[in-house]
Specification:
Elements (H helix, E strand, L loop, with lengths): L6 H29 L6 H12 L3 E2 H8 L3 H13 L3 E6 L2 E9 L1 H21 L5 H18 L2
Antiparallel strand pairs: 1-3, 2-3
Helix pairs in contact: 3-4
């Protein structure tokens, strides 16, 4: 006999499933990184992936999107600068802020990573409809909004 779960139990399961999915995404990409001997961590790859979609953002925006504190983000960006994947430039609108841009080397890495990421999300979404994914996204965004009020 199937028992009916209350909304809190369902939300807990959704959170756990989301964490599990993130772990599987990470593991998949770490295997690819190791197979192709790319010298990069998953955290650095996450930053690059965001910059591939939106280049030239300030560190705070990256920290917010990656859900990292300012000092952790500074450390990660320093690491990308050392690897010559990104550059920091002064924000012309705010001298205290630095904008992060992909370097030529960072852009070159995208050519290698893009097929892996496409393959990963094609595998993850096999058999799903865009509408269902959109509904799930809206649900999680609403839950996040509730938690940040």
């Amino acid at each position: 006999m199937m028992t009916t779960k209350n909304i809190a139990e369902l939300a807990r399961e959704l959170g756990r499933a989301h964490g599990e999915m993130r772990l599987y995404l990470r593991q998949y990409l770490q295997v690819k990184i190791k197979e192709h001997e790319v010298d990069i961590s998953f955290e650095l790859l996450e930053i690059l992936a965001y910059l591939y979609r939106k280049d030239g953002v300030n560190q705070q925006e990256l920290a917010d999107v990656m859900v990292k504190d300012k000092s952790s983000m500074t450390y990660l960006i320093d690491n990308l600068v050392k690897r010559e994947m990104v550059t920091r430039t002064e924000d012309p609108n705010d001298k205290r802020s630095k904008l992060i841009y992909l370097s030529a080397k960072g852009k070159q890495l995208e050519k290698k990573l893009a097929p892996w990421i496409a393959e990963l999300y094609e595998k993850a979404t096999a058999g799903l409809k865009a509408h269902d994914i959109q509904q799930a996204l809206l649900l999680v965004q609403k839950m996040n909004e509730n938690l940040t009020k």
